[in-house]
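To whoever picks this up:

The nightly regression suite flagged BfmA/BtgA family mobilization protein as changed. Nothing in the input moved, so I suspect the structure step. Input below, exactly as stored in the fixture:
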Amino acid sequence: MDKGYEKERFESLSIKSSIAKKFRRFSKRMGASQSMTLLLMLDFFEANGLSPKESLGPHMHTLESLIKKRINAVMAVIKDIEKNQTKPTAAMMHALFEGEKETDKKPLLTERKNTAKTLESELEQWKNKTGQSRTPES
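Regenerated output under the current build:
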């Protein structure tokens, strides 16, 4: 017996025999009595605001296409954010940290201020290496 409906009496409906056979098969697949299967069907149509006359096909396809469009729009926004905000920011941060690492190292070339003393000492060192004397007379 159906729970909650044990004390109710049965009514008869006049339906065609082929439709009654089809409904009985459907009820067996649902695993419920014929009364409960009919009640579930009615509740479904009322809860979803559907009519048995209208088809769900076009409505489902319309919803699916709308969802796909929204997903594509969200993906476009995420790609734009990545392209215009995330990657440039990451590149700037990388360059900033690379700049700090380079400041820790000694520079390869340094600028020296040339004074008369340093020029004379360098000229003297060069002459000693090449074997020339300091004065042109010797």
